[in-house]
Amino acid sequence: MKLPNVIIGIYVASIIPTANADLEPELPEPSFYRQLAIAAERLCILLYVFTAEGWQPGARELIGYRWQEGRWQQQTCPLPDVVYDRRFCTDAVSRRNSRHILSQIKLAKPHILLNSSLPSKLEVYDALKQNNRLAPFLPSTLPYSSPSQIEPLLASYPDGLVLKPGAGMHGIGVIHIKLNTEEQSVHMNGRTRSNRIFTKTFTLATTNWWHWLDRVTARTPYILQPYFPLNDKEGYPFDIRVLLQKNEQGLWRLTGIAARRGAQGALTSNLHGGGGATLPQSLLEINYGKPQSERLLDQIHMISEQAAEHLEGRYGRFAELGFDYGIEPGGRLWLLEVNSKPGRASFRLIGDDSAERHSIERPLLYARFIARRLYATAAVHESANGRQAQDPKRLRPFNVQEVH
Hints:
The chain is α+β, with helices and mostly antiparallel strands. The chain has nine helices and 17 strands. The model is unreliable at 378-404 (pLDDT under 50).
C-alpha cells in the first residue's frame, strides 16, 4: 500500500455520532467532505474529519472519521500535517476553545493551517477600504448601535437600509428597513435567525419598532449598510458568487463563477434561503447586454484577485476565498461579502463540472504543496545543525496501515 504524501485533518465544530453502528455519524457539509475524501484517496492523501473532542492533551494521535468502504468510520488517526479549518463557530467562547485545541495539537506535532480565518464583516470592510482600487466597490458600512441611529439615515436612503449580523452567513438574520413617507410607517422584511421569512410594518410615530429591533438584534453585533435594488429585470434578487483558490503551485486561480437567484420578492439570493443558481454569462447578458456583461465579469475577476492579495497581506495565508457581488439595474457593481469558508454547491447546480472538480481538488493539491515546503524546511534545519532527525516520522508521511 502506498504511503500518503500528506495527512490532512478537516477541523469541524461538531460531529453527531449515532448509537447504531450501522448508521453514519452526522457531519456538517457531508457531500463536500465525501467528495474531498474520495479525491484525497485518488491523490494518495490521508484525510479525516475531527472535532476538538477527538483530541486528548499530550497524545500523538486523535480520534477522527475516515471515509472507507463507502461510509464514515471512526478511527484513531495520526496528527495532521495540514489542518483544513471548516468550523462554523456560533460564539466567541467556542471560537476561543477551538483555537486553544489547535495550539495544543501543534505542540504535539507541528502543522500548517490551510486557510486563515477572516474577522467580522466590519473589520474586513475596514481592511479592504484601505485599498484605493477596492474602495469604490465597497458599500458604506457602519457598526450598528441602536435604532436611534437608523431614523436619521432613512431619509438619506430612499431604498432603505440593511442590517446584517456582523459574523452571519447564508442571509440569516438580514433585515431590510424602509421608510414609507406617505404613510409615516417603517416597513421591515428579511429572515429571522431561524431562517424564516418575515415582514413587519410599524407606525413611525411609535417606538414599537425600536423595541422590536432591540429584541431581534440583542447579543449579536450587527452592521448597517444602504439597501441596493440588486434585482434582475424580472424582479428576482441575484448575486454573483466567485470562488478563488490556490493551485498546486501556490498561485491564485479563478475556480468558478455562478449567479445565485432568489425567489421573487425575497431579500437575498442565498441557496440556504431557497435560492437557485444559473450561469452568470447568460443572466448578465440578458440584463446588461453582452459588452457590458463581459466588462462586469472582467471587473469581478480583477477585484477578487486584488482583494485576495490584500486580505492575505493583512490576515495571513489563504487557500481559498469566496466573493459575493451585487449589481444594480444600471450596472453598478458592489463587493458585498468575502468568505474564508466558501461553499461550492452553486457549481453543481449550474452544471459546471470543471469548476466543481477544481473546487474539490485544489485545496488538497495546495495542502500537499505547502506540506512539502514544511518537510523541506525541517530537513534543511536538521542538516544545518549537523544532526539527524530525532523522530523519523516527522520527516516522512505515515503509512496508511499505521492509522488503524
